[in-house]
Design brief:
Length: 326
């Protein structure tokens, strides 16, 4: 569809997520991980050291097992695919219904639809401005800043980006409502664990605000729920490699719960806008299985995904961003 300033919207909103393989196969996973792990924002080691390690050790060892994990959560059907891609695409459609005068599209920082290609296509279709909304509630130099790198190279199309929304009142209310609805009718008290994606400690030591924003957002959500401090905890998942990461880790936290007899736990991952490999496979399956083996009962609470409340939050944030731009 070709749009011109006289026949279609002049503004666009781009919802950007991290990315995902095109298929649950070793080849597709290798293509995706190669792009992802080549980004200096993600791995800032010397290229002379990192590239041989990546291509001759990490990728050959990881692609097959990671592809099997993706296959385990892959959504079948004509509109199926990786959950991250499916929910992101549906979320963009839901936001579009709330912003009929603006063109709303989805994009990926790694994989397809590639952000740089989406921006180029918008420009060719006559879009004059693009407000970019990373689907990361918390800012990090390893994620949000990488999107900014792409925008800095998009000279043909003026862009602006929302850096974070971890304390947005409507977002906090939406996450709290999701937790409250999942717990409706519970007979007994269950401990609530906020699990965020991990980050190497050296990033925080250099001033990355991610950990501080995770803690602030979790505290605000717990307060919205009226939870006393002893009723909830915070942890970080998905560590990779041998260096020190921010903590405590989700796995160690769950192990500690089991040892202390805290056996009924709800886990929510508010750092993820939509469900993906790290929530559906790592938390809902792998960590839940480990916790069950220790006598525990883990219930995973889904992300906001393409829910109406989530779409309303993002549409309002985009509206405000475009209005401020004017």
């Amino acid at each position: 569809m070709n749009l011109t300033p006289s026949t279609g919207p002049r503004d666009a909103v781009v919802l950007v997520n991290l990315g995902t393989p095109d298929a649950p196969t070793p080849r597709a996973v290798r293509r995706y991980l190669s792009e992802f792990l080549h980004d200096h924002r993600v791995v800032d080691l010397s290229r002379w050291l990192w590239c041989p390690l990546l291509h001759f050790v990490i990728l050959p060892l990881r692609c097959a097992p990671v592809s099997r994990k993706y296959a385990n959560i892959w959504i079948d059907g004509p509109d199926g695919g990786s959950p991250l891609a499916v929910f992101t695409r549906r979320l963009a459609c839901a936001v579009q219904t709330r912003m009929p005068d603006v063109r709303v599209v989805d994009a990926m920082r790694y994989g397809r639809p590639a952000l740089r290609d989406v921006l180029r296509g918008l420009h060719e279709d006559g879009i004059e401005r693009a407000f970019v909304l990373p689907l990361y509630p918390q800012y990090s130099t390893s994620t949000t800043a990488s999107i900014a790198d792409v925008l800095a190279r998009a000279d043909a199309l003026p862009t602006r980006m929302l850096e974070d929304y971890h304390l947005d009142a409507d977002w906090i209310a939406a996450v709290a409502a999701r937790i409250r609805a999942a717990r409706a009718g519970d007979a007994g008290a269950r401990h609530l664990l906020f699990s965020f994606h991990g980050l190497p400690q050296r990033f925080v030591d250099r001033g990355d605000p991610y950990q501080r924003q995770c803690e602030a957002g979790a505290t605000a959500i717990a307060q919205s729920l009226g939870l006393p401090r002893e009723a909830w905890s915070l942890s970080y998942q998905s560590q990779f490699g041998r260096e020190k990461w921010i903590g405590p880790s989700t796995r160690a936290t769950l192990q500690g719960f089991a040892a202390r007899g805290v056996l009924d736990v709800d886990v929510i991952a508010p750092g993820f806008a939509v469900d993906c490999l790290e929530t559906l496979e790592e938390v809902s399956e792998m960590l839940a299985h480990e916790f069950a083996a220790a006598g525990g009962r883990l219930r995973y609470l889904p992300c906001l995904n393409d829910g109406d409340d989530h779409a309303a939050v993002l549409a309002r944030l985009a509206r405000h961003g475009l209005a401020d731009w004017r």
